[in-house]
Automatic annotation (TrEMBL):
The keyword NAD applies. GO terms for biological process: amino acid biosynthetic process; aromatic amino acid family biosynthetic process; chorismate biosynthetic process. It is found in: Cytoplasm. It comes from Tsuneonella suprasediminis. Its cofactor is NAD(+); Co(2+); Zn(2+). It catalyses: 7-phospho-2-dehydro-3-deoxy-D-arabino-heptonate = 3-dehydroquinate + phosphate. Binds 1 divalent metal cation per subunit. Can use either Co(2+) or Zn(2+). Signal peptide: none annotated. CDD domains: DHQS. PANTHER family: 3-DEHYDROQUINATE SYNTHASE, 3-DEHYDROQUINATE SYNTHASE, CHLOROPLASTIC. The gene is aroB. Its EC number is 4.2.3.4. This is 3-dehydroquinate synthase.
Length: 369
């Protein structure tokens, strides 16, 4: 059991990591419940598997639960999904001082967080992440958003939760593919800023993916602590520090867009492949050697994650992927800074990258003739 503080003056909160936290939710979250009825927005599958535990815990503290179920999948992070959720929260008479609970993965967390950011110009929310990805990444740091026709997370807000309860027991029901996708974001923390953690994962990754108690808790806590540190330094991604958490995402989001935000490529899978591409592009720029890029690719491949762009068999060229990248939120006065590597364990933001060169690089990776 660990409690990791996110140290944001005026908006500080704790992230609890451990077992049976859903059973303890009524007690742990008592400061954030003011009424008899607690509104819980839940991923359909997370509700089916873990909803009863949460409901029992809240009922033990004398509360009733109003459930709002969100269909599983990235498509729920949409204008339509947002509108329906906001109307429901308004029907439930949620006030600014109330907290809405989000039970599920990053989709439900991002959607609920954004709805809470705009509902009556802002109400509170509590994150109850049930995927590895959501526990190590999306539930922490306050990025909330929906996807739009133009791309990933393009309408959203920074809105911090008041509490995060990452119950490791919920991960036992996660399909292996989703577990691996979440592991990509774990690996990201090592690649971007912590060579010792990267090396630890090289040795202990299989134990983490097998949900062995201690390695799992260590990996989740290390990831959250890394994210909490960066978020506390640069909450709104203005100094360039937080942008490092975007390692692999400029490539990854373009691939998610090109595959239609579908099951063909999960977010974590796009990040995994994106990290390999960022490493290979860093090597092309002479920032790291090919051996270091291979090391990143090998770590991704060993986890059973996609590591070769050609394997996706996309029907597009590098320019098409670069066109998706022009919607990236890091875009600054017409140029797109890229998160690249100076070493495995040291990411930097490079502002002098030519998108045409990236497109040519991607042609090579796609094996476009
Ligand atoms: N806000 C951020 O900082 C941030 C960070 C990383 C990713 N994200 C976003 O998070 C989303 C991806 O999140 P995700 O990977 O959690 O996906 P997800 O929310 O789609 O969940 C993945 C799948 O797991 C199922 N599921 C959830 N909990 C389960 C459980 N305990 N057992 C069995 N099945 C369960 C869901 O029904 C879904 O099918 C993307 O939209 C991504 O953009 C946001
Ligand atoms: O918290 C952050 O900052 C991140 O970049 C974490 C990412 O893993 C996450 O996918 C995030 O939503 C991407 O941010 P975006 O600003 O590129 O949408
Ligand atoms: Zn991500």
């Amino acid at each position: 059991m660990a409690v990791i503080p996110v140290d944001l003056s005026g908006r500080e909160y704790d992230v609890h990591v451990g077992r049976d936290l859903l059973e303890g939710a009524g007690r742990l979250a008592r400061n954030f419940i003011r009424k008899q009825m607690v509104c819980v927005v839940a991923d359909e599958r997370a509700h089916e598997l873990h909803g009863r535990r949460l409901e029992t815990a809240l009922m033990e503290q004398g509360h009733d639960v109003a459930w709002y179920l969100v269909p599983s999948g990235e498509a729920s992070k949409s204008w339509n999904g947002l509108a329906q959720l906001c109307e429901w929260l308004l029907d439930k008479e949620v006030e600014r001082g109330d907290h809405v609970f989000a039970l599920g993965g990053g989709v439900v967390g991002d959607l609920t967080g954004f709805a809470c950011a705009i509902l009556k110009r802002g109400c509170g929310f509590v994150q109850l992440p049930t995927t590895l990805l959501a526990q190590v990444d999306s539930s922490v740091g306050g990025k909330t958003a929906i996807n739009t026709r133009a791309g990933k997370n393009l309408v959203g807000a920074f809105h911090q939760p008041s509490l995060v309860l990452a119950d490791l027991g919920t991960l036992a029901t996660l399909p292996p593919r989703e577990l691996r996708a979440g592991y990509a974001e774990v690996l990201k923390y090592g690649v971007l800023g912590d060579r010792a953690f990267f090396d630890w994962l090289s040795a202990n990754g299989p134990a983490v993916l097998s949900l062995e108690e201690q390695p799992l808790e260590y990996a989740v806590s290390m990831s959250i602590a890394a994210k909490a540190r960066i978020v506390a330094e640069d909450e709104r991604e203005t100094s360039g520090r937080r942008a490092l958490l975007n390692l692999g995402h400029t490539f990854g989001h373009a691939l998610e867009a090109e595959t239609g935000f579908s099951d063909r490529l999960l977010h974590g899978e796009g990040v995994a492949l994106g990290m390999v591409l960022a490493a290979r592009y860093s090597a092309r720029m002479g920032m790291i050697g090919d051996a270091d890029a291979d090391l990143v690719a090998q770590a991704v491949a060993t986890a059973g994650l996609p590591h070769d762009l050609a394997d996706l068999a996309l029907d597009c060229d590098g320019q098409k992927l670069a066109a998706h990248m022009r919607h990236d939120k890091k875009m600054d006065a017409g140029t797109l800074p890229f998160v690249l590597l100076e070493a495995v364990g040291k990411a930097v933001l490079k502002r002098d990258v030519s998108l045409d060169d990236v497109a040519a690089f991607l042609d090579g990776q796609l094996r476009v003739a």
